[in-house]
């Protein structure tokens, strides 16, 4: 059994909700399906509190790579690129929120660019009270990978995982669910013959060489970066577990939200 009012952070990966190899291409049918799965899970567990995040996929990552935005923003040309990345991230967010609203979910976006300031991509300032009030009102807060002002870099890009790292400290979730197109973490990517079912902090060093990045454009580091960032959160957060799994198959997302261990489970 889960605690009353369990909080879950759920990320819909950019590779899941967009065609990451074709610029600015959302998977609208998939978004509709995923929104209905989230609705099913929340209807079955009304006590569940969910904060939803999503990646930028073929929207933000393409523009970000063109301008080098994640590495820093200083010149006028780079700041123009900063605004282009924000525009593309917002375009995808509109598709995500529209699908959620059409499924009957009270989705409310919280774009990091409007509220978060970071220092070397670590969030240092954010009014989390607005998200807390949204949860209290039984709304569905939606965050995303987005640009942000940065105290050292001028401007940068915060991945959804960067945003989650801050939200973990504020909301102390029991679980983080990272839903993508891969079945989980592969020990031999890209061959994909050996799925790692569980990664413990103490075991990671022995397997890290087999975990690779992303096959598509991903300025925030791909799978290896995700695993290492999540293990760092687990190390510093009591009772936190993380699941990395595929939501390509219908029903998988609902099963994960309802508590089933899917894909790869990261634990202390």
Strand order of the largest sheet: 3-6-2-1-9-13-14-12
Strand-and-helix sequence, N→C?
Answer: EHHEHHEHEEHEEEHEEEEHHEHE
The portion of residues forming beta strands comes to 15-25%
Average predicted confidence as pLDDT: 91
Structural class: alpha/beta
User: Which CATH architecture is right?
Assistant: 3-Layer(aba) Sandwich
Termini gap? 20 Å
Report what the structure shows.
- The protein has 268 residues and is an alpha/beta fold.
- The chain has one domain: Carbamate kinase (3-Layer(aba) Sandwich), CATH 3.40.1160.10.
- 40% of the residues lie in helices and 22% in strands.
- The protein contains 10 helices and 14 strands.
- The chain has helices at residues 14-17, 28-44, 57-67, 76-102, 112-115, 129-136, 160-171, 204-207, 222-236, 252-257, and strands at residues 7-12, 49-54, 107-109, 117-119, 122-125, 140-144, 146-150, 154-158, 175-180, 185-186, 195-196, 198-200, 241-246, 264-267.
- The strands form 3 sheets. The protein has an 8-stranded mixed β-sheet with strand order 3-6-2-1-9-13-14-12, sandwiched between helices.
- A hairpin with an 8-residue loop joins β10 (185-186) and β11 (195-196).
- The chain is globular and about 50 Å long.
């Amino acid at each position: 059994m889960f605690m009353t009012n369990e909080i879950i952070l759920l990320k819909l990966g950019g590779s899941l909700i967009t065609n990451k190899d074709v610029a600015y291409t959302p998977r609208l049918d998939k978004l509709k399906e995923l929104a209905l799965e989230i609705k099913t899970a929340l209807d079955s567990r009304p006590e569940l509190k969910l904060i939803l995040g999503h990646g930028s996929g073929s929207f933000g990552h393409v523009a970000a790579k063109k301008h080098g935005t994640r590495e820093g923003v200083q010149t006028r040309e780079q700041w123009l690129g900063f605004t282009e990345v924000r525009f593309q991230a917002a375009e995808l967010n509109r598709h995500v929120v529209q699908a959620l609203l059409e499924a009957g979910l009270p989705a409310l976006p919280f774009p990091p660019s409007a509220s978060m300031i970071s220092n070397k991509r670590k969030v240092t300032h954010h009014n989390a009270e607005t998200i807390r009030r949204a949860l209290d009102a039984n709304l569905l807060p939606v965050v995303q990978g987005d640009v942000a002002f940065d105290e050292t870099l001028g401007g940068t890009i915060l991945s959804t995982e960067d945003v989650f790292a801050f939200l973990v400290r504020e909301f102390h979730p029991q679980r983080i669910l990272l839903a993508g197109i891969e079945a989980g973490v592969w020990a031999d990517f890209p061959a994909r013959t050996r799925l790692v079912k569980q990664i413990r902090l103490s075991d990671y060093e022995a397997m890290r060489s087999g975990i690779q990045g992303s096959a598509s454009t991903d300025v925030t580091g791909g799978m290896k970066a995700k695993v290492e960032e999540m293990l760092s959160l687990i190390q510093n957060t009591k009772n936190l577990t993380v699941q990395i799994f595929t939501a390509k198959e219908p029903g998988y997302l609902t099963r994960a939200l309802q508590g089933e261990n899917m894909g790869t489970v990261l634990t202390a």
